[in-house]
Design a protein that fits this description.
By secondary structure, the protein is mainly alpha-helical. The protein is built from two helices and no strands. It is flat and about 45 Å long.
């Protein structure tokens, strides 16, 4: 879990993960993991580029899309 300087920063991060999860069709937690891994690899590539070395890390695969419309739970259908 990253450390945040303020609540506003924390809420901005959570919103970013939520919106990315909506776009990718996965949960916000999976989107956050994907985002963190992508940022980590980009930092690694930048460090290697500063040394003049090309990075051999492949891109991070996106999480598998979920089919949330298939869910058939009666407790969520109540008014």
């Amino acid at each position: 879990m990253p450390k945040f300087a303020s609540l506003a920063e924390r809420y901005r991060h959570n919103r970013k993960c939520f919106e990315l999860g909506l776009e990718m069709g996965c949960t916000p937690k999976e989107a956050e993991q994907w985002l963190n891994e992508t940022e980590r690899r980009e930092k690694h590539r930048a460090r290697m580029a500063a040394r003049g070395i090309t990075s051999k890390l492949p891109p991070v695969p996106k999480p598998k899309r979920r089919d949330f419309e298939r869910w058939d739970t009666q407790h969520m259908m109540r008014d």
